[in-house]
Design a protein that fits this description.
There is one protein chain. The chain folds into two domains: about 1-185 and about 240-405 and about 465-495, MFS general substrate transporter like domains (Growth Hormone, Chain: A); about 185-240. Helix content is about 80%, strand content about 0%. The chain contains 20 helices and two strands. It has helices at about 1-10, 15-25, 30-60, 60-80, 85-115, 120-150, 155, 160-170, 185-210, 215-235, 250-280, 285-290, 295-315, 315-335, 340-370, 375-415, 420-435, 450-455, 460-485, 510-520, and strands at about 495, 505. A two-stranded antiparallel sheet has the order 1-2.
Length: about 525
């Protein structure tokens, strides 16, 4: 299962590193490349609930194998992208297909791991799985930097050997594949995909459309309205895509809220820290990957501790400690970004990583342990939908904040250097978009006064970009502060093995009766 999910985690970051080479080789616009990067994450968010349901309907082994084949086929097609007008549509389509394959693989893979261990050992087992699987995320920048020197197409070829090993090991391990013959809720799948896609699109485009633009709020508001319709529909259908009654349980709801706010930081920090290192610290792609290792060092060490706390004391203590450490870590890390010294930052990066590591496994495992009718694939699909939707929202909001703050700081730098008000307006936006990874085709050229000032102020621009990132990291600290408040809502009950092997924790008789009805033929 680790080899099966390795591709998913590597692909979350590897394409961002290779983006400049892809733009140059196939002739994408900057906005087109942004859509390519976001297509994968949006597809993950939109289809995870469907993937969790299909994992139950098809059986976990079949879902892992099918998803792996879809993922690797889409990877090969991405690597074959043609140059010219067709390039953007081609890459967006097959990056989304990769997301669909990943949405099939991950819920089923985690469900296999969960079912392989008794409740008392799941905390440590799932913690180890999540640590090792998440560790592949940091390989994205490292592999991307190394492979792009050869050809950007190789970043997709690397998925082929990982898929081959995953398929062979899945067969050798005799992974069980028990099917739950149920109807797949196609209307629900369409509604959740449309709602999430629209809302995230509005947040992503806010930096270019503007927060006051009707199109921005039409997308955000329309997406949220569609999600409300989705919830109403799911409550009325007999075999819903998402069993919303799991949210009746206070502990489950608290777990999911903690995962939502924590996920506003986990994947976004990989992207923004990597871009910060390459821009503000002038690091190479490989050095940027190494910069992230301190975060993962704290994450990996603390995750095992979080699993042990879950097994002995339940999820609540681990989530409270993790959110508190993470909030402090990101706030202190952000305060040091403007020093432009990685040596001054690593202790706080370790603390931030430790906070995420402490809470992630307990919150994820506790939700699965509380699955109604032992539908591990379904509940995993719910939690991963929430996590990936939050990551997409975080990427969109933080990206908008970064561009706006950097634009304001660059404008102040140019004004202080003597540029006129007319020159400052366009030049500041061009510089901000260039350093945040969204280059503009209309940046100043030639030997005019602004171009000369810009050449002389590059050091100041790096500091301006670092200050923009500072607000992004403060936003991540705020998100973990919200997660701490949500962790306080958890009742602190523990899940143990009941007499029949079902997960119980003193919940109501009504809930247990719901579970028994779900298990009837």
């Amino acid at each position: 299962m680790l080899f099966a999910v390795a591709m998913i985690f590597v692909d979350q970051t590897i394409v961002s590193i290779a983006a400049p080479s892809i733009v140059e080789d196939v002739g994408l616009t900057s906005s087109g490349m942004q859509r390519v990067v976001n297509a994968y994450l949006l597809a993950l968010a939109a289809f995870f609930a469907l993937g969790g349901r299909l994992a139950d309907v098809l059986g976990h082994r079949r879902a892992v194998v099918s998803g792996t084949l879809v993922f690797v086929a889409a990877s090969l097609l991405c690597s074959a992208a043609p140059a010219g007008d067709l390039a953007e549509s081609w890459l967006v389509l097959f990056r989304a297909a990769q997301g669909l394959g990943a949405a099939l693989v991950y819920p089923a893979a985690l469900a296999v791991v969960v079912e392989a261990f008794p409740v008392g050992e799941r905390g440590r087992a799932v913690a180890l799985f999540i640590v090792l699987a998440s560790g592949f995320t940091v390989l994205g920048p490292l592999l991307g930097g190394w492979l792009t020197v050869w050809t950007w197409r190789a970043i997709f070829w690397v998925n082929v050997p990982m898929a081959a090993v995953a398929l062979v090991l899945t067969r050798l391990a005799h992974v069980p594949s028990v099917r739950r013959p149920e109807r797949v809720d196609v209307p629900g799948a369409v509604l959740i995909a449309l709602g999430m896609g629209l809302s995230v699109l509005g947040l992503q485009q806010a930096s270019s459309w503007g927060w006051s633009a009707p199109a921005t709020w039409a997308c955000v508001g329309g997406g949220l309205a569609v999600l409300a319709v989705f919830c109403r529909y799911e409550l009325r259908t007999e075999q819903p895509l998402v069993t919303l009654r799991v949210f009746r349980e206070r502990a489950f709801t608290a777990d999911v809220l903690v995962l939502f706010f924590a996920s506003l930081t986990l994947l976004p920090v990989m992207f923004f820290a990597s871009v910060y290192a390459q821009t503000a610290l002038s690091a190479s792609p490989i050095q940027a990957g190494l910069y992230l290792l301190s975060f993962f060092a704290g994450f990996g060490i603390a995750a095992q501790g979080g699993g042990r706390i879950l097994d002995k004391r339940g999820a609540r203590p681990a989530m409270l400690l993790g959110t508190a450490f993470g909030c402090a870590g990101f706030a202190l890390w952000g305060a040091k970004l403007t020093d432009l010294s990685p040596h001054a930052q690593w202790p706080y990066a370790v603390l931030a990583g430790a906070g995420i590591g402490l809470l992630l496994s307990p919150a994820s495992t506790d939700t699965v342990n509380r699955a109604i009718g032992a539908s591990y694939g379904e509940v995993t699909g719910v939690t991963q939908t929430v996590r990936n939707y939050a990551a997409a929202v975080g990427m969109a909001v933080y990206g908008t904040v970064l561009i706006h703050v950097t634009t304001d700081r660059v404008a102040a730098t140019l004004s202080a250097a003597g540029a006129s008000a007319g020159e400052v307006r366009g030049a500041a936006r061009a510089v901000a978009e260039a350093v945040t990874g969204h280059p503009d085709d209309h940046r100043p050229t030639g030997e005019g006064p602004t171009a000369a000032l810009m050449r002389g102020a590059m050091g100041a621009f790096r500091a301006d970009f670092a200050e923009g990132n500072q607000w992004v990291f403060y936003g991540m600290a705020l998100a973990l502060g919200m997660a701490f408040l949500c962790a306080l809502l958890h009742p602190g009950t523990r899940v143990t093995d009941g007499p029949t092997g079902a997960a119980t924790d003193g919940t109501t008789d009504a809930r247990r009766e719901d579970a028994r009805r779900d298990d009837r033929p």
